[in-house]
Amino acid sequence: MSLSVGIVGLANAGKSTLFNALASRRLSETAPRPFTTIDPHEAVVPVHDEDFHRLCDLIKPEKCVPATVTFIDIAGLVKDAHKGEGLGNQFLGKIREVDAIVHVVRAFSDEKVSHPHTSHPVGSEHQILEDIELVNLELELGGIEKKPTIYVLNVDEEKVNQVGQLTKLIEEKFKGEVLAIAGKLEEEMIDLDNVEKAEMFKMLQWERSGLERLILEAYKLLDLITFYTIKGEKEVSAWSLKKGETALDAAGRVHTDFAKKFIKAEVINVKSLLDIGSWKDAKEKGRVGLEGKDYVVQDKDVIEFKVGQ
Ligand SMILES: Nc1nc2c(ncn2[C@@H]2O[C@H](COP(=O)(O)OP(=O)(O)OP(=O)(O)O)[C@@H](O)[C@H]2O)c(=O)[nH]1
Ligand SMILES: [Mg+2]
After folding, report:
1. What pLDDT, in 10s, does the model give residues 50-103?
2. CB of 38 closer than 6 A to ligand 1?
3. Which one-letter DSSP state was computed for residue 43?
4. Of 29, 39, 139, 203, whose Cβ has the fewest other Cβ atoms within 10 Å?
5. Ligand 1, closest atom to CA 20?
6. What are the strands of the beta sheet with 63-65, ordered from one edge?
7. Atom 3 in ligand 1: which residue has the minimum CA distance?
8. Among protein residues, the one whose CA lies closest to atom 5 of ligand 1
9. Of the residues 20, 35, 36, 91, which should be mutated to test ligand 1's pocket, given the most ligand atoms within 8 Å of the CB?
10. In what order do the strands lie in the sheet with 149-154?
């Protein structure tokens, strides 16, 4: 299971720009005209996870498979999309199936990029709130049930740390999480290597990229946790699970057969395993727990499933 997130918003809000940044590739065309995106695009994005990287470094398997989030970029919505205006309506079906919505809101100023309808100054609070209302109304009229939503304010880079008030207002008014992200800058950073990126973050006084914040927020919003499996020296994998789900659910996530033939799960927290240094030592020290199918999986558990024939 990869968590799926649909990117919605008005035409020209910067959806494809954000999508490309997430995908680290320019999969969707972006342009300063509305309706640049016609066909929906999907990108499977690995979840950044320090512990997972450390676990891979420790085990050194042939393959490391991170947990992923699938993002779907669709055509921009316009007023009366539910009546068939514009293109976005055709793809609302895609949004029906996703676990969460990222609602991109234009908050950057750029005269070259037209806004599809507003009579307010672009970048003003009025325009931003009106845009959100309009898109939410179209989603509702288009028959999309209310889903967990992250509002992404697509801001100019110097505003990323300066929209606290507006963030609060939107959170209260629309009951969703709000993140300010400089979409264009994040897209431009696709071309930088990790050292250059780190320098850039330092200069901008960012702790982490907006994209990482976005994925973490999606995890939080959907109440997800991560667990890890180690398959001999072959494969270390990270998986997502809903908080409160059991060892049996986790087994089913890895393999339907694992759930059917589940006997026991050997479990250790990743930090303990990293401290101890090897599975064998951890077992000898009695630090690996033996759990039944009802065990509630904890965030960052490393699990070895014991299954029957
Ligand atoms: N200055 C500035 N321009 C941006 C930003 N984000 C996107 N743009 C520009 O705005 C234009 C529209 O961006 P897109 O990502 O194509 O917008 P979209 O929401 O996918 O648009 P449609 O597919 O037409 O609905 C492009 O020219 C982008 O380069 C930003 O943060 N700042
Ligand atoms: Mg687009």
Report:
1. 999 999 999 999 999 999 889 998 888 888 888 877 776 677 788 888 999 999
2. no
3. E
4. 203
5. 15
6. 63-65, 235-242, 224-231, 301-307, 262-269, 289-291
7. 184
8. 184
9. 36
10. 41-46, 68-73, 3-8, 100-106, 149-154, 177-181
Nearest ligand to the CA of 104 is 1
Contact (Cβ atoms closer than 8 angstroms) between residue 106 and residue 12: yes
Residue 182 shares a structural domain with residue 84: yes
Which atom in ligand 1 lies closest to the alpha carbon of residue 187? 6
Strand partners, 103: 8, 151
Q: From CA 165, how far away is CA 206, in angstroms rounded? A: 19
Same domain, residue pair 128 and 267: no
Residues with CB under 5 A from ligand 2 (ion): 15-16, 36-37
What is the count of structural domains for the chain?
Answer: 2
Residue 239 lies in a domain: no
Structural tokens at position 245: 């789900």
Per-residue model confidence as pLDDT tens digits over 189-238: 989 998 999 899 898 888 888 888 898 899 888 899 999 999 988 999 99
Verify whether ligand 1 is closer than 6 Å to residue 182 (CB atom): yes
What span, in angstroms and rounded, lies between the C-alpha atoms of 284 and 24? 43
Q: Write out the residue range of the structural domain in which residue 44 sits.
A: 3-221
What 200-204 contacts at long range (C-beta under 8 Å, 24+ apart), as own/partner pairs, is 204/157, 204/160
